[in-house]
Design brief:
The chain is α/β, with parallel strands linked by helices and about 475 residues long. The protein has two domains: about 60 residues, no CATH class; about 400 residues, Alpha/Beta hydrolase fold, catalytic domain (Rossmann fold). About 35% of the residues lie in helices and about 15% in strands. The chain is built from 15 helices and twelve strands. The protein has a ten-stranded mixed β-sheet, with helices on both faces. A two-stranded antiparallel sheet has the order 6-7. A hairpin with a 2-residue loop joins β6 and β7. α2 crosses α3, α7 crosses α14 and α8 packs across α9. The longest helix is centred in the C-terminal third of the chain and has 20 residues. The protein is globular and about 65 Å long. The model has no long low-confidence stretch (mean pLDDT about 95). Pfam families: Abhydrolase_3 (PF07859). This is Acetyl-hydrolase. Keywords: Hydrolase.
C-alpha cells in the first residue's frame, strides 16, 4: 500500500464512521477489549481487522507480492551488508538429505516437488549507533566494507539466523530491516536474514531447502563470503509467524537427520563445497507468534479472534484470490504452500511432529492470539520431552504485536525478553524452563505451569488437523482456494 499522507487520507476517509464508532465504544467501555487495550491499540487492530476481513477486496497473489517485496532502501540506525552465495557443485547432497528426511517422516501419500538448489541471497544486519533514524546509508562502501563496519559495533557473540513472516508467499528481508535492526541492537549481535523462495511459485520444500542452505552457509561459508565460520553454539534460529514455521521445521529436519545418521556413534555429515561437514544443532530457537499448523484448525483460531486482527477461516470462506500468473497453479493444488496431501507432514506443520528429544532451548513470545493453541501444544510437548522452554504469553495481544504495535510497553518487553533469551542461549546457556503470562497494561507477570498450558491431547490435535485438511481440500474441490491473512 502506498504510504504517503495523501494516500493514507484517501484510505482512511471512507472509514471515518467506523473509526468514530470504535473510538466511542472504547471510551465508554462498551468494547470487550476496552479494559485490555489503549485507544490507539483498539483503533489499529480493528482497522486492520476491517481491512483483512470478508468485506475487503481480495488482491491477486502477484500484486500482493509486488507490493510487499519492494526494497525500501537502507537508512537509519542499521548496517546492511547484502550477500549472494553460489550453489555448491555438490549441492545435490543437501537436497537428497532433505528429501530423505521428508520421505522418512511421511505417513504415506504426501506429494511434494523436488526443487533445485539456487544461489542464496541474504543480508547481514547490525546496529549503527551513530546514525539518526533518517540517516542514509554511507556511499562508496562495498558490501564487504559494510560488513566490517557492522562487525565493529557488535558486542556479543549472538548470530541470529532470521526467517521473516508473510504466510510463505509475502514479504522480504528488506522489509524487515527495522525489526532485524532492533534485534541486533537488543542482542548486541548480528542478524543473518534469508531471502527464501516464496510460494506459490516455489512450494514446499523450496523454502526449507533454502533455510538449510543458509544454516550451512553460516557454519561453513563458501569462498568469497564476508564472514568467518560461525560455531553452531553461537547461532540462534529466529522467526515470526511463517518464519516460525521455517525455524521449527528446520530444527525438526536437523533432529531427523541426527536420528537417522548411518553411524549412531559418529556425527551426521553432508557433502558441502567439496568436503564432508558436520550438521550440529543450533544454540536455540527464538520464536515470535510462530505458525505451526498450516491447516489453521485448532480451537483458538476461532476462539481468540476477538484479540486478533487476522480473520479466522469462518470469516474468509467466501473469499478467493483473483487469478494471476502465480495462482492458481497449473496443475492446481489445494494450498498455497504445499500439496493438500502434505498439510499434516511434520516439516510442513511442525505441530504434527511427535519427537523433539534432544532439541536446544526454545523461546516463545506470543499474544493471546489465534495461533495460541498450536504454540501451546508445541511448547508443552517440548517441555515434556526434556527441552528447556521459555514461554512468554501477553494477555489480549494480537499476532506479532511487538512488530505491529512497536510503541506499546508490552512490545518493549517482547524485544527485551527475546534478546535476553538469545544472549543466554549463546553466552551462558538456558538452565531451566520458565513460563509467564504477562497481564495487559500493568505488565504484571504470573507464573505458568507447563502441564497446564493446554488441555489439547495429541489425538485432539491430529483430529482437528485432519478436519482442517478436509476443509481446505473440499474448498479446492469446489473450485476455490482458502485465502489466508499475512501470517
Amino acid at each position: 500500500m502506498e504510504s504517503s499522507p495523501s494516500a493514507m487520507l484517501r484510505f482512511l476517509l471512507p472509514k471515518t464512521p467506523f473509526i468514530l464508532k470504535t473510538a466511542v465504544a472504547h471510551t465508554l467501555y462498551l468494547s470487550e477489549t476496552s479494559s485490555k487495550w489503549d485507544l490507539r491499540t483498539e483503533l489499529t487492530i480493528k482497522i486492520l481487522r476491517h481491512m483483512l476481513g470478508p468485506h475487503s477486496k481480495t488482491t491477486s497473489i502477484s500484486k500482493q507480492q509486488r507490493l510487499t517485496t519492494k526494497d525500501p532502501g537502507v537508512k537509519g540506525k542499521v548496517w546492511i551488508s547484502k550477500v549472494k552465495c553460489s550453489v555448491p557443485e555438490d549441492g545435490d547432497a543437501v537436497r537428497k538429505l532433505l528429501f530423505k528426511a521428508i520421505e522418512d517422516l511421511k505417513e504415506g501419500g504426501e506429494a511434494y516437488d523436488e526443487p533445485a538448489s539456487t544461489p542464496l541471497e541474504a543480508e547481514w544486519t547490525g546496529y549503527r549507533a551513530a546514525a539518526h533514524h533518517q540517516t542514509p546509508e554511507p556511499e562508496g562502501l562495498s558490501e564487504k566494507e559494510k560488513y566490517v563496519e557492522l562487525m565493529r559495533e557488535t558486542s556479543s557473540k549472538v548470530t541470529l539466523l532470521y526467517f521473516h513472516g508473510g504466510a510463505m508467499y509475502l514479504l522480504d528481508p528488506a522489509t524487515y530491516r527495522n525489526i532485524t535492526g532492533r534485534l541486533a541492537k537488543e542482542t548486541g549481535g548480528r542478524v543473518f536474514s534469508v531471502r527464501y523462495r516464496l510460494a506459490p511459485q516455489n512450494p514446499f520444500p523450496a523454502a526449507l531447502l533454502d533455510a538449510l542452505t543458509a544454516y550451512l552457509t553460516l557454519l561453513y561459508p563458501p569462498e568469497g563470503s564476508p564472514h568467518q565460520p560461525v560455531p553452531a553454539k553461537e547461532i540462534v534460529f529466529g522467526g515470526d509467524s511463517a518464519g516460525g514455521t521455517l525455524c521449527t521445521a528446520l530444527l525438526q529436519l536437523l533432529l531427523q537427520i541426527q536420528r537417522t545418521k548411518p553411524d549412531p556413534s559418529s556425527p551426521a555429515t553432508v557433502r558441502w563445497h567439496g568436503r564432508d561437514v558436520e550438521i550440529p544443532l543450533p544454540a536455540g530457537l527464538a520464536l515470535t507468534s510462530p505458525w505451526l499448523d498450516v491447516t489453521r484448525s485448532l480451537p483458538s483460531i476461532e476462539a481468540l479472534a476477538k484479540y486478533d486482527y487476522l480473520p479466522p477461516p469462518s470469516h474468509t470462506h467466501t473469499m478467493r484470490y483473483p487469478p494471476c500468473d502465480a495462482w492458481p497453479e497449473k496443475p492446481p493444488r489445494a494450498e498455497l504452500y504445499c500439496e493438500g496431501s502434505a498439510l499434516l507432514h511434520p516439516l510442513v506443520s511442525p505441530v504434527a511432529a511427535k519427537d523433539w528429544s534432544g532439541a536446544p532451548p526454545v523461546f516463545f513470545s506470543l499474544g493471546e492470539e489465534m495461533l495460541r493453541d498450536e504454540d501451546a501444544v508445541l511448547a508443552q510437548r517440548l517441555y515434556e520431552q526434556g527441552v528447556k522452554v521459555r514461554w512468554r504469553e501477553f494477555e489480549a495481544m494480537p499476532h506479532c504485536f511487538g512488530m505491529m504495535l512497536e510503541g506499546l510497553a508490552a512490545s518493549r518487553v517482547h524485544f527485551e525478553e527475546t534478546a535476553r533469551f538469545c544472549r543466554d542461549a549463546v553466552e551462558g546457556g538456558v538452565e531451566s524452563s520458565s513460563g509467564q503470562f504477562i497481564v495487559a497494561k500493568s505488565l504484571v507477570r504470573r507464573e505458568v505451569e507447563f502441564g497446564k498450558l493446554t488441555d489439547l491431547t495429541a489425538d485432539d490435535v491430529r483430529a482437528a488437523m485432519i478436519k482442517g485438511r478436509e476443509r481446505i481440500e473440499k474448498r479446492h474441490g469446489g473450485g476455490m482456494t482458502e485465502t489466508r491473512p499475512m501470517l
